[in-house]
Design brief:
single chain, alpha+beta, Beta-Lactamase, 5-stranded antiparallel β-sheet, 16 helices, 20 strands, about 25% strand, elongated
Length: about 625
């Protein structure tokens, strides 16, 4: 009677008992945890009653797993069948065969069959069976050769498999009672049994460690499977698996070949395109070298001159042939300076517009503006340097001459303005005293004309003097804390205008907010000039009786100031121009107004010198508003 040490396991299409009894040798089923699940009658005859326990304890009489057994790999599918392995079991020499069946139970089981040498030597029937087996083994060997040739033959896969199944069936011990088929994925080759009767042999088809299908043979009229048939079917399954692996490799190689063919074609086209582009680029670069007005000089890693374009030839007097290959330091007035520059180039990648001096072949020194950078190949490797230089000797000479002229001009303007202002102050003061003592109306009118012209010339001289000092650099912004902006800046500016405009601020508009307790860092004298000019313009260009207003807004870190007046305003295309030097708006509203065109220019320089900005907003025909920002600190 069949003995089990675990719940019964089932085999697809037949019972475990029939499956084990179909084997002519002692056989046992071993579960993945190593326990013996069942044995056939031949195994129980050899071992006596089979109790519970692990396979190596029950079947081999050992205290640890058999040395030849890849148990874990068999269970995981990492090893194939173990065939004809010599061993000693319970003191008897034998041959052991192991194979894992996934179809048995939930997790599969290992089939172990054993043939003992003592049986072969003492049992005449077994010796006769061995002699009878030889022709069958030769038939199976021949069948395996035919199957191998079928698998490697040309033709469609289904045709080759049909031949394989035919040769497989013909090579079995009882072909008339064998039905075989092959399952690969969703495809089935051959004619599967509609109803499984008798013994069933199932062998996995493995390729590259992956189970791709199975080979199934149903021995319809037999309840046992000859070991040689089982080994033959296992070899057939292995041959099919190896052929699938070869087919996969061939398919991969064909895909790779096609891909590489396309890559080669694309690479060839890319090479032609790049060659053509390189030729064009080379021609383009050569054109640049030839036609550039700037000197272009390249060097190699040893600082030897490689390229020396025509502009460099013309400027420095060397021909390309005589200078190429020589150290670039021969061109520098100070060779050590170039090494200093190269340290910066290596650290940052380049320098731009560096002013230095080169020495021509004649010995003449050329002032140049140099842009020097590292020359690299497409992979980023440094090949040397490329320098683009512009000869600025003539430009520098012109600039120095202009600076001298400007300095002389500023000094002249400063001197004339200063002396004229002093004289005009004296003249205006003298005329004013005469006006106070004069009683003849006709003489008073003439003296007033002289007085007002003197005051205008005095204001004009003051504007020129401020401009000269600004441009001469003497007008430095020395800031101090202004505690009361109205008292220290705005009120003095108003008082200075009272004499020219006696009714100047009678129409001051309180709605604009005025300037209260504003406190900031600035220069009192310069900011007074700002307000004196803005107030003067507002009074000069307002409508008769028109309002004048000023105010301030706190913007956090800065103040926003404004001076507003009702009047003809400024056209939109002139709101930027009015801050230019000597610019004056000339239209019907300003023709009779006298001015220098310097007031707004000067106050813009003062506001910007304080870190602020000034601009103009206007609605022509109605009003104009000058706004400026000043930082608090």
């Amino acid at each position: 009677m069949l003995q089990t040490s675990t719940p019964r396991v089932e085999l697809i299409g037949t019972s475990v008992e029939n499956f084990l009894e179909s084997h002519s040798d002692p056989a046992a089923l071993v579960l993945p945890d190593g326990r013996v699940a069942a044995t056939n009658s031949r195994m129980r005859t050899v071992l006596g009653t089979v109790g519970e326990g692990l396979c190596y304890e029950v079947l081999a009489g050992l205290d640890k797993i058999c040395p030849f057994c890849p148990f874990e790999k068999l269970v995981s599918g990492g090893a194939g069948a173990v065939l004809d392995q010599r061993a000693v079991r319970h003191g008897q020499a034998c041959r052991v065969n192991l194979r894992f069946f996934r179809e048995i139970g939930e997790s599969g089981a290992i089939l172990e069959t054993v043939r003992y040498f003592s049986d072969e030597e003492t049992n005449p029937d077994l010796r006769q069976e061995s002699r009878d087996m030889m022709p069958r083994l030769l038939t199976k060997l021949s069948g395996l050769l035919s199957i191998s040739r079928d698998l490697m033959a040309a033709g469609a896969f289904h045709e080759r498999i049909a031949n394989v199944l035919q040769h497989m069936r013909d090579s079995l011990s009882d072909p008339s009672n064998a039905v075989g088929w092959l399952e690969l994925g969703s495809e089935v080759y051959g004619s599967p049994s509609k109803e499984v009767k008798g013994a069933l042999s199932v062998h996995d088809i493995q390729a590259e460690g992956e189970i791709r299908g199975r080979l199934v043979v149903n021995f319809t009229a037999s309840d046992r499977i000859f070991p040689e048939d089982e080994y033959f079917l296992q070899e057939t399954a292995d041959l099919i698996g190896r052929q699938l692996a070869v087919s996969d490799l061939e398919a991969m190689l064909r895909r790779s070949e096609e891909r590489y063919r396309r890559l080669a074609s694309n690479l060839q086209q890319e090479m032609w395109s790049r060659t053509e582009a390189l030729a064009k680029e080379t021609g383009h670069l050569e054109g640049i070298l030839r036609s550039s007005d700037d000197m272009i000089i390249t060097t190699d890693l040893e600082s030897r001159i490689v390229e020396f374009n025509p502009a460099a030839v013309e400027t420095l007097g060397y021909s390309s042939e005589e200078i190429q290959g020589r150290p670039v330091s021969v061109l520098w007035e100070d060779a050590a300076e170039r090494e200093h520059i190269m340290e910066e180039v290596r650290r940052t990648g380049g320098v731009r517009n560096y002013k230095t001096r080169l020495r021509a072949k004649s010995g003449e020194v050329r002032e140049i503006s140099l842009t020097l950078s590292l020359l690299k190949d497409p992979e980023g490797r440094v090949l040397g340097t490329v320098g683009v230089s512009k000869d600025v000797s003539r430009d520098n000479a012109i600039r120095r001459e202009l600076e001298l002229l400007n300095r002389n001009y500023r000094e002249t303007i400063h001197f004339i303005s200063h002396e004229t202002k002093n004289s005009l102050i004296v003249i205006a003061g003298f005329v004013r005293r005469l006006l106070k003592s004069e009683t003849d109306p006709s003489r008073t009118e003439k003296l007033e004309i002289v007085y007002h012209h003197a005051k205008f010339l005095e204001a004009m001289s003051r504007d020129f003097l401020v401009m000269a000092e600004l441009e001469h650099g003497e007008f430095q912004i020395r800031k101090e804390m202004i505690e009361d902006f109205y008292k220290d800046v705005i009120l003095p500016a108003m008082i200075g205008l009272k004499e020219r405009y006696p009714d100047s601020f009678q129409s001051y508009d309180e709605s604009m907010g005025g300037v209260g307790g504003v406190r900031l860092m600035g220069n009192r004298g310069l900011l007074e000039i700002v307000y004196r000019n803005l107030f003067g313009n507002a009074l000069k260009y307002r409508y008769e009786g028109g309002k004048i207003a000023y105010g301030v807004l706190d913007r956090g870190d800065r103040y926003l100031f404004n001076v507003w007046n009702a009047g003809p305003g400024v056209k939109s295309d002139q709101v930027e121009k009015i801050f230019l030097k000597f610019y004056r708006v000339l239209d019907e509203t300003t023709r009779d107004k006298r001015g220098t065109g310097l007031g707004l220019y000067n106050i813009r320089r003062i506001v910007e010198g304080h870190g602020g900005r000034i601009w103009c907003e206007s609605k022509p025909g109605e009003w104009v508003n000058f706004l400026f920002e000043l930082p608090k600190e």
